[in-house]
């Protein structure tokens, strides 16, 4: 038996770093963003459908998807984003289902930022939500990702409020501190998961 764990939360709340620490502790980890990147690489299963929707202008010279060009087209355009999601989300879901069916470690942890938005929350044994204050999110987005404060605020506002995600999750991890504190929290959560599994 495998414990299926979903990790979600707000933008710049530390989902990927938290899952990295779980992986170091022994969990199998798959990140939805990594799945999407593979689907959009040369020969990826989403490339032809995306170029069919948005034109050859979103295809890189190597045949993969130019994520910056695609992002410019879909960010701020709900209809375009919905069309893109209609192509990508079923492929991502199929990749997760195949991964869950493979043998592996006792804990399989999937990073799915839009878990609740896409309605995939019923399929997991435990849902963990990473939360940070908006001030910390803004600081991370502007410092680490190079966004302007206005861009960062728009990205935060475009998502389901993190408080709502937290209310719908089994565990909530507050990540307003540093990476060391998050690593300790990941170890605590992993122990809890293993104890619950056993």
General form = globular
Mean of residue pLDDT?
94
Biggest sheet character:
5 strands, parallel
Structural class: alpha/beta
Number of strands: 5
The rounded distance between the terminal residues' Cα atoms is 10 Å
Q: Which range best describes the helical content: under 10%, 10-25%, 25-40%, 40-55%, 55-70% or over 70%?
A: 40-55%
CATH architectural arrangement of the largest domain: 3-Layer(aba) Sandwich
Number of helices: 9
How much of the sequence lies in strands comes to 5-15%
Question: Can you give a write-up of this model?
Answer:
It is a single chain. This protein has two domains: 1-27 and 107-198, P-loop containing nucleotide triphosphate hydrolases (Rossmann fold, 3-Layer(aba) Sandwich), CATH 3.40.50.300; 32-104, no CATH class. By secondary structure, the chain is α/β, with parallel strands linked by helices. The radius of gyration is 17 Å and the shape is globular. The mean pLDDT is 94. It has a five-stranded parallel β-sheet with strand order 2-3-1-4-5, with helices on both faces. It has helices at residues 15-25, 32-40, 47-54, 67-74, 78-101, 134-143, 149-157, 162-167, 179-197; strands at residues 3-9, 28-31, 107-111, 126-131, 171-174. It is built from nine helices and five strands, in the order E-H-E-H-H-H-H-E-E-H-H-H-E-H.
């Amino acid at each position: 038996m495998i414990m299926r764990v979903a990790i979600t939360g707000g933008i710049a709340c530390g989902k990927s770093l938290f899952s990295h620490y779980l992986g170091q502790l022994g969990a199998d980890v798959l990140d939805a963003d990594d799945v999407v990147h593979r689907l959009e690489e040369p020969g990826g299963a989403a490339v032809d459908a995306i170029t069919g929707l948005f034109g050859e202008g979103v295809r890189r010279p190597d045949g993969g998807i130019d994520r910056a060009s695609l992002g410019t087209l879909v960010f701020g355009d709900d209809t375009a984003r919905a069309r893109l999601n209609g192509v990508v989300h079923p492929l991502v879901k199929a990749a997760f289902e195949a991964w869950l069916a493979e043998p592996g470690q006792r804990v399989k942890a999937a990073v799915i930022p839009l878990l609740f938005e896409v309605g995939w929350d019923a399929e997991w044994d435990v849902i963990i939500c990473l939360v940070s204050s908006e001030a910390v999110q803004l600081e991370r987005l502007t410092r680490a990702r190079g966004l302007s404060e206005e861009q960062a605020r728009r990205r935060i506002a475009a998502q389901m409020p993190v408080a709502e995600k937290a209310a719908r999750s089994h565990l909530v991890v507050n990540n307003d501190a540093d990476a060391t504190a998050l690593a300790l929290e990941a170890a605590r959560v992993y122990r809890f998961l293993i104890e619950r599994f056993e």
